Amino acid sequence: MFLSFTFLLTLISSSTFHDNHTPPSTKISITNHNIQSFTNAGIGNNITGISQFKRYLSRFGYLNPPHDHNNRIITFSDEFDASFESALIKYQRNLGVQVTGKLDTNTVSEMMTPRCGVPDTKTHHQHNNMTKMHSTKHFVYFPGKPRWSRDNDMPITLNYAFSREYMIHNINMQDIKKTFKRAFSRWSRVIPVSFIETEDYSFADIKIGFYSGDHGDGEAFDGVLGVLAHSFSPEIGRLHLDAAETWAVDMDGTKSEVAIDLESVATHEIGHLLGLSHSCVKEAVMYPSLRPRDKRADLNIDDIKGVQSLYGSNPNFRSHWSLGSDLSTNHAANFGLHTLIIAFIFAQFIHIVL
After folding, report:
1. CA distance 59 to 123
2. What architecture is the 134-311 domain classified under in CATH?
3. Residue 236: what pLDDT?
4. What CA–CA distance (Å, rounded) separates 152 from 222?
5. What is the C-alpha separation between 40 and 329, in angstroms, rounded?
6. Which residues does Ca(2+) 1 bind (predicted)?
7. Binding site annotation covers 33?
C-alpha cells in the first residue's frame, strides 16, 4: 500500500498544483514532507492543511460547512475536531476503507484517487438532483428511486447522442462511439432497456459531452485527475466528462501514467443515468473511484442487483452467478442420486449374501 500511495502521490504532484493557489475541494494537495503530520493527527490537533480534507469531505456529502452567527458559510479551520473525525469515519465506512477515524495512509490514498463527481451521500449543496441517497444492501439509489419510464413501461428504448461542440480530439470519434456502445450494452444485457445512438443531439434522451472547468451545471471540473466525470439521475440524461483527462480506449497503446480508461468511466456514469448512486463494493462498477490505467467495466453482481431492482431483469439475461448456483444444485442432486444408487446396490449385495 505504501508503494502504491507514494506512486499516486507522485502522479498527483506532477500533474497539478504548480502554484500556491488553494486546490479545488475535489483534490488533496500533500507532499512527502507533511504526510506524516496528517497521519499522526487526532482530535485537538491544529495542522495546516486539515481544511482541505474538510472541503473534500464536504464536497462529497460527509461534512456540513461551518456558518457564522449570521448563518453565512465561512471557511473550514485546520483543527482536527470531533465533527471531522465523525465525517472521516462515515467516509471510511462508505468507501470500504478500514475505519480508524484518522487520516491514515489508506484513507488519504483513497481521497487522492481520481473519482466520479457525484456525492456519495447526503450533501448540503444540492445541484441538479445530486441529493441525498437511499441505500439498500450495497447499491444505492437517488432519492425517490427515480428511473426511466414510458407509457407502456418495459421494455423501453433510450437514444443517446454526442455533442459536436464539446468533444475531445486525441481519440478517434469512431473509437469513442464504439466504447460507449460497449458501455451501454453492458447495462442493456441485464435490464429490459435498450440504447440507440442518434445524431439528433437536441432531442436525445441522453446527451454526452466532454467539458472543461465551469460548464454551467454548478459542478465545475478540476483539470487533470481529481473528478473524472459526473452525470445526473433519471430522467435528466446528461453525462459530462472532464476534457482535461488523458482518456484512453486502449491502455496497451497509451504510455501516459495518468491515462484514464474511458469505458470504465462511461459504464459507471451510465449507472448514474439509470438511477444508481455509489456502491461501497470495490469491485463494483459503481464504486466511486478509479486509479489511472485501471479498468473496471464489467458489471459486478452488486451493480446487476441494483439496476434490476429498478427495471427488472432482461428476459434473456442469465448470469454466471445463477449458473454457478444451478451447477451447485445439480451437482448436489447428482451426488445424492449417486449415493442412493450405491446404497441400493450395497443393500442388494447384503441381501444376497445373507
Report:
1. 8
2. 3-Layer(aba) Sandwich (3.40)
3. 96
4. 41
5. 52
6. 245
7. no
The answer to whether 250 is annotated as binding is no
The stretch 139-145 carries a mean pLDDT of 86
Cα–Cα separations (whole angstroms), residue 99 to 21, 89, 111, 180: 31, 6, 14, 36
pLDDT at 125: 32
Contact 180, 264 (CB under 8 A): no
The kind and range of the H/E element at 21 are: none
The helix/strand count (H/E) of the chain reads as 9, 10
Predicted TM-score of the model (pTM): 0.83
Query: Bridge partners of 196?
Result: 159
Q: Which residue has the higher pLDDT, 35 or 107?
A: 107
Stretch (H or E) spanning 346: helix 320-353
Mean pLDDT is lowest, of 45-49, 98-102, 231-235, 322-326, for 322-326
Could you report how far apart the first and last alpha carbons of the chain are, in Å? 69
Residues 275 and 294: their CA atoms lie apart, in Å, by 24
Backbone angles phi, psi at 15, to 5 degrees: -100, -25
Q: Specify whether the CB–CB gap between 166 and 209 falls below 8 A.
A: yes
Task: Tell whether 67 is in a known binding site.
Answer: no
Residue among 194, 207, 92 nearest 161 (CA): 207
Active site residues: 269
Cα separation of 85 and 332, whole Å?
Answer: 50
Task: Give 295-352 pLDDT, tens digit per residue.
Answer: 999 999 999 999 999 999 999 998 665 433 333 333 433 434 343 333 333 344 334 3
DSSP 8-state code for residue 235: T
